[in-house]
Amino acid sequence: MAWGVVILLFLLIAMGMPIGFALMISAGIAMYVSGIDLVMAPIQMFSGVNRVILLAIPLFIFMGELMGATSISDRIIGLARALVGWIRGGLAHVNVVTSMFMAEMSGSAVADAAVMSKIFVPSMEKQGYPKSFAGAVTATSATLGIIIPPSIPMVLFGVTSNVSIKDLFIAGIVPGIMLGGAFMVTSYIFARIEKHPVDERFEVARLGQQLTRAIVPLLIPLIVVGGLIGGFVTPTEAAAVGVVAALVFGWVLQRDLSFPKVYQLAVNTVRQTSVVMMIIAGSAVLGQFLANEQIPQAIASGLGDLTDDFILRMLLLNVFLLFLGMFLHASAAIIVVVPMLLPLSREMGIDPVHFGVIVCLNLGIGQQTPPVASVLLTVCSATGLKIEEIMGYCKWYILAMFITLITVSFLPQTAIWFK
Fold this sequence. Notes:
Elements: H1 2-14, H2 19-34, H3 40-49, H4 56-68, H5 72-84, H6 90-106, H7 109-126, H8 131-141, H9 152-161, H10 165-171, H11 173-194, H12 204-229, H13 235-253, H14 259-292, H15 295-306, H16 310-327, H17 330-347, H18 352-366, H19 374-383, H20 387-410
């Protein structure tokens, strides 16, 4: 019965049903067939979302919306150009570095892709870069938004697995830098092959000027993440501090924001949050049913019985997560699958924080690979490009992501260096 519910869930998702509703319908049918009183469903749904820590999700989303609506992106791009624009293929490197900076503000790869695709793809095309190349760089570098803190998927992983969100944020720093470096190496190789131009010469004076302009926007996420890492605030409080700081910067200091604009950004935040909360509510019911049927233990036992070799187990775990990432939204994959795989990861001796980074990296690759490919489709929608056009370049950036994933998987100190 339990396996039938899992198959039904994937069928409903494949038919295009919103994931939150697919979870609820699957769970409701399972409870009805099993003779469980359906009155328990709304109680479990409410219990699943009635957690203070989940307030961090809408607050981080709102912080990203506020900062994206100000002149912050222009300041960050100016700093990135001064830092790496002098390298051959300059704008591609600027694209990646800007995404690394913006990742500190939004926590969402889709949000980063939506903003960056409108800025970088036209400007790169104007400088002579192939449009499909510009789209590929923009799509893949947006993945940094869920690796470099703050990261909404990491918040969800922490809530789902009872792992410290502070530790997950710290663990994402080095892999995020590694991934950004891998993207820049890939861009440099293409720059040499296709003779991409240098953006502008390096000048210390201009770097200092751009750093001065960007210092306040950079301080906001540093204060938020630094306060969390330092133990001064909880994740929810850190997100609230970020919202207040973004409001002060955008509304009071820069005058980029107005009441109607802030209201619209709040509406956007509510819409994005409602999607995540529906998924959490639905997964709370389904997760309880699967736990009662001991499906997590069965999956862990099944994968574990295939081989006793740690390397093969790790590869199988990654392949399983990569496959799920191709068909499930990152939030749904974390909430539904992580409880199933935690027993296996513990049996293998994988640190839960390290496992969280592995999960996020796998799902980041899934955001670039059809059929779901949420980030890739966002860039295609914003630029008018077709998936097959972008994939010609994107596959090499996905290879860079895969190399980073394998490195982090088998070198745990890249993630848990602080322990």
